[in-house]
Amino acid sequence: MKEYTTDQLRNIVLLGHGSSGKTSLAEAMLFTSGAVNRQGRIEDGTTVADFDEEEIRRRISLSLALVPVEWDGCKLNVLDTPGYTDFVGEVISAVLVADLALVLVDPVGGVEVGTELVWSYADQQGLPRMVVINKMNRENANFNRTLQSLRDAFGRNFVPLHLPIGSQGDLAGVVDLVKMQALMGPEGKVEEIPADLAAQAEEARVQVVEAAAEGEDELIMKYLEGETLTEEEIARGLRTAILSGAVVPVLVTAATGNLGTRALLDALVTYAPSPADRGPVQAEGLAGEEEIEPNELAPLAALVFKTAADPYVGKLTYFRVYGGVLESDTRVWNSRAETEERLGTLYVMRGKEQLPVRRLRPGDIGAVAKLSVTVTGDTLCDRGHPVHLPGPVFPHPLFAVSVHPKSKADQAKMGPTLTRICEEDPTLRWRQEPSTRETILEGMGEAHVDIAVRRMANRFGVGVETAIPKVPYRETITRVNADQYRHKKQTGGAGQFAEVHMRLEPLSRGEGFEYDWEVFGGAISSSFRPSIEKGIRQVLEQGVLAGYPVVDLKAVVYDGKEHPVDSKDIAFQIAGREAFKKVMLGAGPVLLEPIYKVTITVPEEYTGDVMGDLNTKRARVQGMDQKGGKSIITALAPLAEMQRYATDLRSLTQGRGLFSMEFDHYEEVPAHLAQQIIEAAKRERGSEK
Ligand SMILES: Nc1nc2c(ncn2[C@@H]2O[C@H](COP(=O)(O)OP(=O)(O)OP(=O)(O)O)[C@@H](O)[C@H]2O)c(=O)[nH]1
Ligand SMILES: [Mg+2]
Question: Please, which pLDDT band fits residue 688 given cuts at 50, 70 and 90?
């Protein structure tokens, strides 16, 4: 692929609700630019961006893909993202390295929950935006109503740059409101604006010129004085207004019919900011904060925003260069790992295809294979000038399963394979939960975790079964209690003797375990203090009620007895352990369960259903807000009831609800439920024996 300089680059992330046509639009752009000679279709599984076998099988995007489109001397690095909310991690990464978000909206559904979600991610990054109303060839497509739904939802200055031509459901072309001409059919044949649209076009053009004028003081003066702005001035003004977010232009396309694509590409080249327009980024260097300028002489700084694991090709690392020039076959410095990485050939990715390039300039996006230590979020830089760029920040997981190997062979490979798939997707995490002795795989939703498990089987040949994880309960006490225990054993010669007097006191939630010594006058030598603690710690791992870890209490040894010959470390360990069990059983032991803070956003009409459902889940609603037709509900709910909430909420709201969930604190399990849990634990331990 040809080399491009910074001002010839446009990094554009396609965002939108699921199925708004992002992948199809990327395909239409690629086809229009001549890079492929057939326009692939989702239905045939032939698009460049959705190349993964699971993407083809499910007909949805699952991960971000790069589609470079060469147009009019520029290279548009188009980042196609998934709309399904389980894959939001990919959206976050793509938004981070883009300079403009092209938000797709459906002309029948208008602004949807997914649209608002991606909009908020673009807000967080302060990303300039353009909107394209796609699927304008759909029956019941309504341009004006969709425009209105954008204005209602986001209150920005949305200004159409193009108007649709053709009867509803049959897009024939678009009106270019800057050049005031019609662009007809996939070829964008220039024609006169149809007579029935002329008045509407004149009116809409006024808005465009006004928006452009507001971009620059000089232009607004000229405009107010009644002078006409030239095409060049309109472009300049719009570019500035888009970059600052003051204006959000609106375009129209029908990706599958390849209509409006040329006009869209022209608009992106003209109005979308180049990395140079976006200016420097903040990084952390040895001497504190520093700015990385998007120019070739700046210190090298490239941010890794994606890592793909392939069993054959190996690891593929995607990065964006912010400063300096990255060259093939050189060495760079990984500032986090503080090691050198050897780069092989650099690639520009086109879907799964690797197009080799000699070098990548500031602002450009590329990939490199087989790095040894680099992971997503790392910065590649000069050894002599190490810097850290801020990496993507991912949300907490919302859905967990426990995974169990299907066979002995699977067991050996399970851990390393989990590590590989989690490296590829940072919204997937895995860990061992010590309190339940399970391997937990967590992600953003059921589909997300399902796909991960399928990938383990298909790509890496590792079979696992999944189940709902056991809840990591804890045990604690509710009142002070004191008692004593004597351990005495006489076996022929040497015997064992230890007596421990112990008091347990409840501590506040989150305080953990404390150990104190109040033995005066040498009743027990202080050398046995750690022995007793060791005995106690054995019980802390598996409590007396149901075998869960014991927390939030203080154990005080206040007296005891020892024997000059028979008292030894092991004797005091045993006495400490047994004393602790005895005192704990008398101290009102209870089970604690994890309580999560949940924030749920749903269209207002679902509020009642969602609240009703929360009631059945022992949740306590903390607050409710109304904003733009949406209800935002916050609640505290026990994890035991929320393990499948990602799925429940989806079915309650036809996929229009969103939520986030984060551990908050531990709380006592209601007595009637505690009894069931304790009995279940007993049965299980019985069956283990
Ligand atoms: N009528 C019509 N259908 C379209 C258009 N664009 C896409 N589609 C169809 O809409 C469906 C979804 O298209 P995709 O391109 O996969 O949409 P997406 O936004 O990439 O979807 P996700 O990646 O899953 O969020 C497919 O069946 C496409 O054929 C369009 O302009 N007009
Ligand atoms: Mg897609």
Answer: low
